[in-house]
Amino acid sequence: MYYHYTSVLNFKNIICNKQLFLSDLEMMNDPQEIEVAIGLLSQIIKDNFNHEEYLNNLYTEFLEHSISRKNVISKEELHEIIVDKNMFEEFLKYLLKECSIYILSLSSSNDYLPMWNYYSQTSGISFSIDLDSLISDINKDEKYCDFCIGKRDVMYTNNFDKDIIGKELESIILDYAYIVNYFVKGVSDKKWTINDESEKLHELCSKIIFLEQENISTLFKEKNFKARLSRFADLIFLFSSIKEETYMYENEVRVIAFTYQNETKSEIENITICSSHTYPFFRKYIEIPFSQKYIRDITLAPVIKNIPIKEEKIISSLEFFLNKFGGVQKNIDINISKHETRW
Question: pTM of the prediction?
Answer without folding.
Answer: 0.85
